[in-house]
Each structure stands twice: as C-alpha cells, then as structure tokens.
Amino acid sequence: MIGEDLCWSNSMGGSNCMLLDCDEQLFKAYKQRSEEGAENLLATWLEAESYLQEDPKILGTSLSPHLFLVNEETAKNIAFSTARKYWGRVSTEMQMYFDKYGLEAKFVNERLNAFFYTQKGKETFFDQLFAQHTIDLERLIWLVFGKRMQMEMPVNELQTIILYKFQDEYLVHMLYKQHASFWHWLFMKKVYSLFIHRPLEQFTFLYEIMGLFENSVRKSCVHVDNFVNNYKTILDKCITHVDKHNASCLAKKQLRLYQIVTHYCLSEDDYDNVKALITSFEVEWRYSMYALTEKEKVLIAYILFHIANREQQSDKVIHYGEYLLEDERLNNYAIEILLEYKELLPNRKPTPPAIIKNYQLNYLENLYAILLDHYVKMAFYEDGLLLLKEHVLASNKKINASLVQKNFSSEQLIAIEAYVQQDIALHVNNSLQHIGLSVEEWRRNYRQPEVPYHVVAQSASLHMLNILRVLFVTEQFELFEKLMEIYKKYLLFDDHFENMRMFISAYV
Fewer C-beta within 10 Å: the chain N or C terminus? Predict the structure, then answer.
C-alpha cells in the first residue's frame, strides 16, 4: 500500500520533481490513459480503504486523505526543495527578463543563492508560504529582490506551490505548466476528498481554498461545454453532502456563504436561486451560535442591492443602498470582503476629482450612481440632493463643494469644467499634457462604439443627467445651468438627452 514517502521522479520529462507516491502513480496512469486511467487507479485504491466514509462520487472517485496529507517537516521539505529546483537557478530566458531591469546574472544568482542556501532565506520562504498559502515565481522575486516587476515574466515550469493546514497535517500541492490539466485535476480531487472524508471544522481559510478549487475545476474541465452550470451543480451536491455529514460549525457557514457568492457571480440574469439560497441561509444561521456577523450582513445586503437593481425594484435598491451607506457599513467591511471574494467588489481606485468615469469599476462609485438613479426613478429628489451633498464620490469634489458651500461663483464653475477636461485627457491619452488636443479627440469620437472610452462616456452621461434632474427639481439652477452646458459640450448622447428634455418638459 502506498504511503506518504517521497520519490524523485523522472516522469515529467526528466525533471526530477519531488512527488508523493500517490501523485507519482496517478500521474503515470494519467499519462498512459488520461483521466480514465487515473480514475481506474483511484477505484482500485478505494476498494482497499474499507474504513472510509461512503463515497458519493460527485467528482468521480475520491482519494483517501492519508495518501496526500503529510506532517509539517515533510511539507516543508517538499515545498522548499521544489521551489529551489525550479526557481533557484536562472534560465537564459529569465536572465533576459532581469537584464531589462539592469540586474546582471552574477548579482541575480548571488541573491538567489543567499535566499535558497541560507537559514534566513529558508525562514523567509516559509513565513511567506505559511501566511499566504500560495507562492509563485512573481512573489518569490519580490521576496528575493524586494521589488515587484512591472512586465510579464517568462512562463516557468513550476507555476504555483499551495500549502494548507488540516489539524496537524498539511496539504502541499504543486501546479506545473506541463500537463497542467492533470495537476489541476489532482488538486480538485484532493480538496473534494477532504470534503468527503474529513470533518469540515478542520478547514481554515475556506474561501481561499474554494477559490483555488473553482479555478482547478475550470482548468481541468476545459472539455465541458457549460462550465457555469456544471460547477454550480457540483458545488450544490458537495454542500448538500457536507451539510448532511457535519455538525454546525463556522466552516459550514463560510461554505454556504461561498455558495451564495458563487451563484450570484455566475448567475446569468436569473437570481431566483440566489435569493432562495440567501433566505435559507438567513433562516438557518440567524439564531445559531454562529449567527451572522455585521460583515456577513453587509455582504448579503450588497448582493441583494445589486439583484434589486437588475430587477429594477427601486424600493429594495434604496433600502439596501441606504443600509450599506449608514455608518459607512460597506466602506468599513469592503477590504475584508475583497480579501475573501476578490471578484465580488469592483475595486478600481476611486477618483473623487473625476466626474467622467465608468462608475461600474469601483464598488462605492457604482453604489452612489445606482442609488441616485433609483432616487430619481422614485422622485425622491431631496434624498438625491442629500446624497450629493454628503458623499463626494456621488459626483466629484468641485460639484460637492459647490453644493455644500453654496458657492456658485464663476471661478468655481470654471473649475468644474477644468476638472472635466482633465478627466477627458486621462481617458484619451492617459496624460495631462496637451489637454486641448485630447478634448478635441474626445469630442470627435466619444459617441463611436469602437473607441475605448465610449463606455466611459455613456456611464458618465447617464449619471450626469441624474445629477441634473436632482438639481433641476430642487432648484439649484446656477449649478444646473453650468453642468448642462458641460454635458452638452462633452457628454451629449441624443437618446439620453431626449429623455432629459422630456423630463424637464413634464416639470415646466
């Protein structure tokens, strides 16, 4: 029977990579008969493991965790030896990359030797890996040279080292460029097998593991026509099984939250299932010892806010939007949510000076734009004006200052247009040089769908018109007239403006 002994293998084209016995044998079977061969080998092993919990075969045959979980010393040996093997020497291609940064070969090799062949370097490596749970070549270069490289690096054979602790044992796994689908398939199998055969409470950093699991399922299922539906089905079956075989614990709640976020992110304009999952989740966890935290309530409210917007339920948009803004709830928990669910919150750096921008690229700017849109739809114009006064990102610094200070001097109004021209120059040429030429190019082209800033102009046009509606109804006429002049000059879309003209006609 195979155990956790290490072997030095030549099966990866003579690369002598350090593998566990089970990885080595599965790799040989996969090379000979692809996934079918590896599955047959797993089935043979499973027959010998009579003590294991019944395998539901959601992702084929599972793997006994004792075959791939190792003690801390073994995990360190595997991770460090593999990193040194692949990243401890510089290839000709890699040195050409370093040459672009003025780093000579002798210096590069001295720094790598100091890292991989000293106790201090070893400790730095493990500190990083144990804290971050993954390491790749880009992060290693940052550790060794203290800088992040700004250009794309050559592809290395060793892509990523993964390390997670499960009670007193460790999952250590490598992802390689060669036969990448196998290494992703094997990581997927290992995580799945831990769900089936280990108590869920042994999972820490579950949201990270699930992100890696989802990526590996995607990479190993390239032959599947509809990945989204297949992954949601796999996930739901796994969670149903885990729910049935695990007592209430923090990891169980985190797994259900991951399920909600995943269904939302992968939804295709049908949110009934997401809303049903949220309702079930809130009922199950509301009064448990693991009741929802404030951060989790904010996360769910954020999802429901966007679902309500897509379903055009203005009352719910306003309810959830105001909840998220009250006491700066979203702002207070955004970083924590981003660390766990990177794809949920669009996180381009906010730009308080700018009014011309794509509001969908930052979670707060998008929130203000959506909320203002629904205030207008519900004719809550005073609420819209209050939003513009209290939150700079709902418009921009100059507009906000004009409203708050009631300063509608010609200098202040000229400054608003100057800011708009700067916004335009940055979108057209990413430079504040030759602003006049950039503005001319923008005015010629911004209505053309093929130019990269067309979507920016559309987003800014819709939001600017909502600001104008609020200013008009609340009788902020001086600012209204200046912004209308700016709108006609730099953002006018005929269909958008026709709606605005009809709006004003209805009020006159």
Answer: C
Could you give the 3-state DSSP secondary structure of residue 156? coil
**488 three-class SS:** helix
What is the spatial distance between Cα 43 and Cα 30, in angstroms, rounded to a whole number?
A: 14
The predicted-structure confidence for 13-23, as pLDDT tens digits, reads as follows: 444 457 899 99
**Token pair in block for residue 173:** 């796994």
Task: Find, among 123, 157, 119, the residue nearest to 137 by Cα.
Answer: 157
Give me 410's structure tokens: 């010609």
* Cα 247 to Cα 494: distance, rounded to the nearest angstrom: 60
Contact 435, 462 (CB under 8 A): no
Residue 342 to residue 273: CA distance in whole angstroms: 22
Q: Computed from CA positions of residues 465, 466, 472, 477, in that sequence, does the dihedral angle turn out positive or negative?
A: negative
CA 189 to chain CA centroid, nearest Å: 23
DSSP state of 158: E
Q: Which pLDDT band, with edges at 50, 70 and 90, does 51 fall under?
A: low
Q: What are the residue ranges of helices labelled H in 88-226? A: 92-99, 105-116, 119-132, 137-145, 180-197, 206-220
Give 135's DSSP letter.
E
Cα–Cα dist 93/90, whole Å? 8
Helix, strand, coil percentages for the chain (3-state, nearest 5): 65, 5, 25
Q: Measure the CA angle with vertex 213, ends 212 and 214; round to 5°.
A: 90
206-220 helix and 227-245 helix, angle to the nearest 10 degrees: 140
User: How many residues are recorded in the chain?
Assistant: 508
d(CA 363, CA 444): 30
Residue type, 437: L
Q: What is the distance between the alpha carbons of residues 356 and 353, in angstroms, rounded to a whole number?
A: 9
Tokens of 27: 């790799």
CB 384 within 8 A of CB 376: yes
pLDDT in tens, 270-290: 899 999 999 999 999 988 888
Q: Is 292 helix (H, G, I), strand (E, B) or coil?
A: coil
Whether 2 has a pLDDT exceeding 50, the answer reads: no
Under 8 Å between Cβ of 163 and 172: yes
Strand partners, 7: 19
Dihedral sign (CA 308, 309, 315, 318): positive
Question: How many whole angstroms separate alpha carbon 494 and alpha carbon 488?
Answer: 10
Assign residue 32 a region (left: φ > 0; alpha: ψ between -120 and 50; beta: otherwise): alpha
- Separation of alpha carbons 439 and 134, rounded Å: 45
Give the bridge partners for 258, in sequence order: none
Confirm if 398 and 412 have CB atoms less than 8 A apart: yes
pTM for this structure? 0.90
Query: How far apart are the C-alpha atoms of 340 and 265, rounded to whole Å?
Result: 14
